[in-house]
# Entry
Amino acid sequence: MAPVASGESQVQMTMVPTSGPGPPGSAGSISLGMLVDFIIQRTYHDLTVLSELLPRKTDMERKIAIVQFAHRTRQLFVRLLALVKWANSAAKVDKCAMISAFLDQQAMIFVDTADMLYRMVRELVHARLPSFNIPHAVDVLTTGTYPRLPKCIRDRIVPPDPITPAERKATLLRLNQIIQHRLVTTDLPPQLGNLTIANGRVKFQVSHEFEATLTLMGDEPAIPWRLLGIKILVEDKDTGNGTALVHSLQVNYIHQLIQSRLFADDRPLYDLYDCLHSFCQSLQLEVLHSQTQRLIHERWSDHIRLEEYTIGQSLTVSYWRAQLVEAAQNKLEIPVTHKLTIAMHDNDKSRPLQVKHQPPLPSHEPVQVDHAIKSDCLSMEKLLVQTVQARAYARLKELQLQIKAHNRDDQSLICGIPPVLKIPILYPCTEVEYMNIVADLQTGMLQPMFYHGESHLEEMEKNINSDASRTIRMVSDLRFVIARRRCQHTVLHLPTVCHRKLHLENFQSHPISKLSSHKVYLRLTRHPGYYLVVEFLEGQQFYEIEYRYHLLQLKDQSVKLKAEGESSDSAVSSHAGSLVTLDPATFSKEVGTATPGIKRKISIQHGHGGPQLKRERVDAGEPSMYLPDVAHLISVCDTQIPLISLCQELGRRGIPCQGVQSEGYDVGLGVKLLALPSLRGIPDHVVFKLRSDCLGCTFRLQGKTSRVWTAELVFANCQLVSTTQREQTSSRHVYFTYDGLKPESEPSSSNNTENANITLVMDKFMQDWHSIAEMYATVLDFARNYKDPNRQLFQMVEVKSFSYKRLTLSYGVGRSSTVKIQWVPGENGGSFKLGLGMVGRVNNPNCHMVVQSQLQEEFNTHHNIAQLIQVLCETQSPLQSIIRLPQTTILGCPNKPLSPTQTFTILPQSSDHVRIAFRNLYCLDVHCRGRNLVAIRDGAYSLFDVSKVVEGFTPTQGLKAFLSMFEDSMAHSRRRSASEDDNPPSPIGMDKLDTYMTQHQLHHQTTGASPLPRTQPSAYHPMNPMTPPTSHSNPATPASPHTSMLATSQSYSTSPGSAYPLASPPQLTPQHPNPGAPITSAPTPSPSMLYGTPSPSTFTSSSPSVRVPSPSSFVPAPSPQSMGIHMGPSPAFMNPTGPPSPFHAGLTMPSPGTRNPWPGSPSMPGPSPVSRVGMASPGVGSSMLSPPSRILPQRSWAASIPTLLSHEAFATLMTPSPPPGVMGGPAAYLCCPLERFLGCVYMRRHLQRVIQGEESLHLLPSSEPGVILYHVESINFRVQLNPSTLQTLHLKATPRPEAMEMWSREELNILESFFDTKVVCPPYKANTLTAFGRLLCAPTAVLRDCIQLMRLELFPDQALKWHLQWCLTIPPSGSPLAPPGTPAVVIRTKILFFIQLTRMGMPPSQDSTVVVPILYDPSTNTTQQADISNRAGASGGAAPPNALSGMVGDMLKRWASFSQGQQGNDCTIFPAIRDLLHNLIPQ
# Structure
């Protein structure tokens, strides 16, 4: 195949001979795959060479080379494509070629055969067999070697032994000596002085140019130097990317050229240096040229230009081209063109490249520029930067000289790299206040930089580059800009907002228009209606500014002002008010002296012509960015403006003050009041005493960010001495703080905001001042009684703290309880608030928390601290006992098994009256009496008619008898007899006394006493504490229900007699018609005296009145108040004037009389039963007729009569304790006796409902109260409370006469014990009793087996593995058939009950406890486990699966199958369960 021409080169197709037989023409062919491979390798090689050479060519040369490469490669692949297409259609040619080749091969075989035959004829003649080599054969066979081989063969094949290291070292040392000798004896260039001789060679190195290695081949002088290697050290660190700058082919060419010169020249080393040095300098110029082109294309663009480049000689570049372009565009004078030229030295070629500048650079410039190119750093950009920096310094120096010519005191300086001209604007000048002028490195234009004048930069730049004189004038104008910025910087963190303009309606006519145009307005954010105006004036010197300050007040401003930088054209104008010029010196610590470090010239005058000039010059040592006078004036205005507004507000309220005064050593400002505000509704003597004790009142304003007003009141002669250490001083300081924020309802106008804040503060202060007066009035009376040794209040209470705002008292045992009294202002004038707490670490809360609201309401009525303390001390013990009652909730109540019911609910009625509800069914009224007594009655009875029951409650049967068990000697001494309460008089049979009572009524109507007017107690006069009366009245006699009404009236009317039947029996006191006089004789007869029954009033000991209805509702009588009986307290503590009882009048129980037209008493008019008994009218005489006494039956409403208990007995009643006579079990659960009694009554009441609901239970009539008799088929039952304790409920079972032999006494005893200890025991669940009642309805055989199971529970058999317990209610983990708490016994056609099995000797857990539902079928006599899986799936409330449940079911089924027919007619419940207890073994 002919060679293929490809552009400038040709591809020679080498003929590759094929191995083996083939067609005749195959020797000159080539495979197509190899041809494609050759073409691809050729293209890749050209592409590689092109990538290495292109970076060093110009842009046009690169483009030409790329186009040529693409054209050449395209032509080559086009020919290859044509060849491939031709080869696909050459099948016939190939077949002919194969035939021709086969024929040629056959012809060649014939020729070869003839030649072989001819050669055999010629050579066989000389072919003879040589003699055998016996010696060599013997050597090989015997020794295994061939020692007779000729040495010429060994010398040609085996190489000689190498020389030893010692010989090599000696040779190299000798060669080094020869090289040293040659260098000494020959002429050596000085640039090649850096040489190294080692290992038989010498290395010459010229820094950053080249490195050459030579050696000698012998020691003769005529032997030339042999060049071993060349290394070019020129680098391009900017654009070279670390690659070599010289191709290896070029290095080889230079190597051959230098070697040829070393053979032929007389001075070979000089030629070596000259040749390499010239090449390196040319290479450096090429590098600089390449960097210049890259700078033009990348960073410098048109700012530089490549003027001329001569390869190997010079390079010229011009810069700052922008000035030329601008001059050409504006048709101005063309400036000088700046150039730099890099060329070889004209005279000495050995010197480095030289740099020349046009025009020449000044020699005195501090920015030095290299005059020669350093080979270690070839950087065109660095050379340009150095050059333009030197040029920039020259331009800045020229501008500096022009400024100094205008201002001799100029302190501008040129510093930094690149050079910067710093021009101070205002002395002293900080770093950010200089105007910096720099020269742009690329354009050469001067550019100003000023931090505070961004808007002037463009104009300044034009002036600097065109006319320098305008620059000087602009520098003068920048002084005001800096002054304004300094002012803004000073107030940056102060509560102000800076404004450059302020739209005022009266600007032209206001004095503010006469101020300078250079000024700023500083709006005080805390006082929006005030502005501090800072005016700037030119100083005497070029770099000075004078400041002037004014305070501007706006009128009715209601617009939003724009901050600086925002558009304020749309802002609504406001009206300017007063303008006052301020002098900072007048506000300094000493008037007339300036602040140290500040020089001022002060002359302030007010007039129509405007204020005079005030100038200020700041010393150089003061921080220039901070204006102390501005900050000082803002602080003064911010502090004094609110105080001045306060003084104005005080003047409007008529409160004189001293104005704003400095306190101490100028530590603060305050406003002192000359007189305290007046008080309304406070007695004059209290106001006079309070003002005389108050030493002064001062208002202060504290805080910076959040302003807080503080009012300090100083008092002396404190009325109470507390135990607090900080209150032991002679004077007391009381502080009030008020937030200065305005209310939300106030408008946002500037004038109203400040006034609204001050008004709000003063309103709060007036409320606090009134609170102090209220507290002081109350404490003043208390202090007088507290200090009285006869009243002994100090033994009952201790003053913990008295701060005039609140009073803290400790009382009770160990002074562990505290009460805080404080007046809290409100919308209706305010009221006292009581706070209760404990002292120290105690677990129980304050017992009075339950009656806190009642105590607070009563105290706000009487305002008597002594009375409050009396109530707290007398009710503490009962309330502590009451709060011990459990208030937990229980489940399992009838009809509501899922609804929790609270055990005890405490319902406070007043401070001394508490109702206690038991399970929302029973109710007790507890009245705290004086002298450690508590009165308890059944709260289910109505207060007006004991024959009626309060809706929602049920009377508690036997309550009177139960409470009488806890009476001690103290309470018993106040009762006449216990039978009087349980057997009250009956109104039947009183007709005989009609005539007697009528006579007394007539006499009473004619001679009835009219009580004297009674004085209403003052709100600020102390009410007497609760003290029992000294009269010999019946302890069960309640007070009149109309005491509060009578106390408010001015005079009493005629005694009502029979027309007004009252609850209390009359006390015949004709000797004392005055209601205010206490009665010490003529005891009040009890209703029982009419029938010969002695009254408790026969005892001489006094008893406090009980505000509960009297049982004699059928015997109307006048109240003790109408009879002249004084119900007030004993004079042992308080004033004997006799104020009403401390108990709230509104909470007093009214009379239960059925006919009573007395005001406020619900009754029906009718004849008085008193007339039937012939009782004398009050005031006529004390004699009365007594019919013969008789034994009265017990009445159901006996418990409505209060029972008196001492505090100790009441605590015993409420304290949890084990029941008497019970050793253990659930019945020994700790609960109070009251809970056990009410629980038993509750269970007894529920038992009657159970009997009525079960058909098999039959109720029997009973003549004994409180005893329930009923029977089942074969057993009679008797249920009653334990008569000795009334705290346990017992069951007595006896067989019926016809079934005496069916039951043994042991079985009945087990049933009784189970009822006592497992059924009616805490927590007294009604459904438990329901389940027990259902169990009694079971057939006799079933009941007998159930009793045996009860025996196993009461007396466990230790031989069994499991302990059994009855589940009378469904437990939480029991059956999902019914909710938890439901009765767990169901008796229908089948019997279902639940038992719980617990493994003996193991703690209760899920694996040791299982609840088993037992289902007994009487028809088949089978006992098995109830299958509740289907029901569980339907209800979705199944308990978690237990492995024991499945085992129990399997055992019961297995036992039923084994014992089928063996039990006969006997019930299988007990045998099956006993077998289960004995044989169940969990796996």
